[in-house]
Every structure is written in structure tokens, then in C-alpha cells.
Specification:
This protein is mainly alpha-helical. The chain has four helices and no strands.
Length: about 90
């Protein structure tokens, strides 16, 4: 993340099958079932939520570390976390 809170969007090493599963099950959709986030945005959403458990949840370094671990596919949280972390309501 940069100082403005903007999130860089990068290409991820995802297969066509992985993209299909993400689109069908994990990426946020609007009321018309239109996908409204990219896989990278999903990783940022989850990283921000997971970082709230840290001593200083506003530390962008922690958020970026969590994001990078997921973006490299070194570790992915379980399905409920990917689907729901950071969801309103």
C-alpha cells in the first residue's frame, strides 16, 4: 500500500481453473451477481482484516506482509476467511 491507501493491483500466478473457482465462490459480487473485486483486491481485503488481530492493526507493513504471502500463493487462509473476511454486516 502506498501512503494514500491505494492498493497496487498485480498479476497473480493463477490458473484458468483457479480464476473460475474464485469468480464462482470467493470474489465479492454486487446485488446483480456481478463480480466487483479482483483476486488481488480479495487478498488486500483479507490481509487488512487479518491484520486487525495484530498489536498495531494500522501498520501497513503487516498488511503488506499478509498480502504478499497470499499473492505468492505461499499460504491461503481457509475458505470461510477468503469469502467473509472484511465483509460488511
Amino acid at each position: 500500500m502506498d501512503g494514500s491507501g491505494n492498493l497496487p493491483n498485480r498479476d497473480l500466478p493463477l490458473s484458468d481453473n483457479a480464476m473460475r473457482v474464485l469468480e464462482e465462490r470467493y470474489l465479492f459480487k454486487d446485488g446483480d451477481s456481478k463480480i466487483i473485486e479482483t483476486p488481488d483486491e480479495m487478498f488486500w481485503r483479507v490481509a487488512r482484516f487479518v491484520a486487525t488481530a495484530e498489536e498495531d492493526p494500522s501498520d501497513d507493513t503487516i498488511v503488506k506482509m499478509f498480502h504478499d504471502i497470499m499473492a505468492r500463493l505461499d499460504f491461503l487462509p481457509n475458505s470461510p476467511t477468503l469469502m467473509n473476511a472484511g465483509r460488511q454486516g
